């Protein structure tokens, strides 16, 4: 019996250490989590897709800017023709009479008779090669198009940040879920030692005819139950690791290193934040600006489009190239839409309606985001209350178990009382573990709700 008392005292001291750690408040260190966040932001496929879309929009903006610059093109044509329409020119009818008179006066044949001409309209064996340079001088459509492309770049940048913030929240939540699962496995492993010790105690007491067989059977059943719970906890831990690695785009079976988390997050800023920094609201503001520019684009029909061009080239028959074939041709063009049966007015009204829709949506989304933040903050306060209650219950359960165990060894308490104290202690440790990480998960949700996470 002395052997039993000595061994159980050592085991009791060892089992109390994890519970004391749960109640401590050491300085928290989550450098590994920050490293995982950096890794996830760099490897996540969704983020990469959004960055590709951002690159596309940046290139579209660069393309829009080039529309204001001169453009040079080269074109050449060569024609070979026979037949077709002609122009008849009565050269002989007009000049032969005059030529005959001149021949009589000069008593010569210096002025021969001419035939009437039939001139083919299609140029035969003719080429025209030129360089054309064009430059827009006044074009409101190009101006609004450039502004819209610039806003679309800002919109996509905000979209990338939305994806990043959501990914950070998901990574943190998965990390805390995995850490909670690790602690749950440790609690069940420690609890397994606890119930195995209870089984040993009952076996010793039974062998010494201190208790009946019921205590031995019941304690063996508790070992089986804890073993089943331990296996389930290990599977939960494995699943949590898979989910975490998936977010980091890593092999699902890769190991995950977790920092020891036994303290609470800083709460003052989280409970006093607002939603002004949310990228969703910034996106709506940019969308409103785009809609404003679309309205301006629809109204730009009242402004004439003015451009200029110059051609430098050569044209001639029989591939001649000389001073007579070379030419330049300069001009100014003006286009002005004067009447379109109300088409432009409908475009303007449609753009204005879109502006009003975005304004209404902005008010609704702002209230929705504010409501989300308040709900998350309430969840955080509830989780803190649950954690404080779980800590108190854990202290009580530990004291209760120690007292009942002492009484049971002395033969004063019955096994049912010890079993009840034992289950209360296990459940209290699990509840404290769950409550602690529920706070950290709520912390990640509030960071997402008020956009307070700072990217490195």
UniProtKB/TrEMBL annotation:
It is found in: Cell outer membrane. Gene3D superfamilies: Outer membrane efflux proteins (OEP) (1.20.1600.10). It comes from the Bacteria. GO terms for molecular function: efflux transmembrane transporter activity; porin activity. The keyword ATP-binding does not apply. It holds the Pfam family OEP. One of its GO terms (cellular component) is cell outer membrane. Keywords: Cell outer membrane, Membrane, Transmembrane, Transmembrane beta strand, Transport. Its main location: membrane. The keyword Transmembrane applies. Belongs to the outer membrane factor (OMF) (TC 1.B.17) family. This is TolC family protein. It comes from Dyadobacter pollutisoli.
